[in-house]
């Protein structure tokens, strides 16, 4: 049985099992922070259970919250396009987020994404730790600042680590921007090219 590091928040909801499907099911009952109150559902990681590479994002967005699967909204479609362009099969990866519930504010009929608080990231950390322990990847690619800090600590800066690989205790870690930032960029074509270049370097180096 795997020995797991325990954190406040979600820790009490994590079952003592090496079965990733059982952990995913348990996450649906998580009340480790207040985000579950307004979110539609927990959005847990998905993909190859023994993937050599894990991609970590920030949190589910509106589409992911409604659908129950990670990276299925506009940012996910852009990520799929970038992965296909560099010849990486999404089905060979494991994709997840640092925070498993959607944080938002309502404006009329729209739900506007809000960045998760540090307390929510810490509360949700046991799920990410458990996923990484069970999948046991060689490479973890962090998409955006929240993911980078969740994996490497609060002082880690994606601006300094972008496109680079560093060694962590159990795996190597790379970082780039979140695909949602590409969609928000003034020069989207240039931002997309730089994002693809980052992914190319990270997968080649990993």
From TrEMBL:
Q: Which superkingdom, per the lineage?
A: Bacteria
**Any Pfam family matching the protein:** UDG
What CDD domains does the entry give? UDG-F4_TTUDGA_SPO1dp_like
Q: Could you list this entry's UniProt keywords, alphabetically sorted.
A: 4Fe-4S, DNA damage, DNA repair, Hydrolase, Iron, Iron-sulfur, Metal-binding
Transmembrane parts of this sequence: none
Task: Tell me which InterPro entries the record gives.
Answer: UDG_Type-4/5, Ura-DNA_glyco_family4, Uracil-DNA_glycosylase-like, Uracil-DNA_glycosylase-like_sf
Q: NCBIfam families attached here?
A: UDG_fam4, UDG_fam_dom
Q: Which family does it belong to?
A: Belongs to the uracil-DNA glycosylase (UDG) superfamily. Type 4 (UDGa) family.
What the entry lists under PANTHER family is as follows: TYPE-4 URACIL-DNA GLYCOSYLASE, TYPE-5 URACIL-DNA GLYCOSYLASE
What name appears for this protein in its UniProt entry? Type-4 uracil-DNA glycosylase
User: Which species is this record about?
Assistant: Nocardia rhizosphaerihabitans
Q: What is the lineage of its organism?
A: Bacteria, Bacillati, Actinomycetota, Actinomycetes, Mycobacteriales
């Amino acid at each position: 049985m795997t020995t797991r590091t325990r954190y406040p928040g979600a820790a009490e909801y994590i079952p003592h099992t090496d079965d990733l499907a059982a952990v995913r099911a348990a996450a649906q009952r998580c009340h480790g922070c207040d985000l579950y109150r307004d979110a539609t559902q927990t959005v847990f990681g998905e993909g190859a259970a023994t993937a050599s590479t894990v991609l970590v994002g920030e949190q589910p967005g509106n589409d992911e919250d409604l659908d129950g699967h990670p990276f299925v909204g506009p940012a996910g479609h852009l990520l799929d396009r970038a992965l296909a362009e560099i010849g990486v099969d999404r089905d060979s990866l494991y994709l997840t987020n640092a925070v498993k519930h959607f944080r938002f504010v309502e404006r009329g009929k729209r739900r506007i994404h809000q960045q998760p608080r540090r307390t929510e990231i810490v509360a949700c950390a046991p799920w990410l730790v458990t996923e990484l322990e069970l999948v046991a990847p060689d490479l973890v690619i962090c998409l955006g600042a929240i993911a980078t800090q969740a994996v490497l600590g609060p002082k880690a800066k994606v601006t300094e680590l972008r496109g680079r690989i560093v060694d962590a205790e159990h795996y190597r870690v790379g970082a780039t921007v979140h695909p949602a930032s590409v969609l928000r960029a003034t020069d989207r074509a240039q931002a997309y090219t730089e994002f693809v270049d980052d992914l190319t370097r990270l997968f080649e180096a990993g």
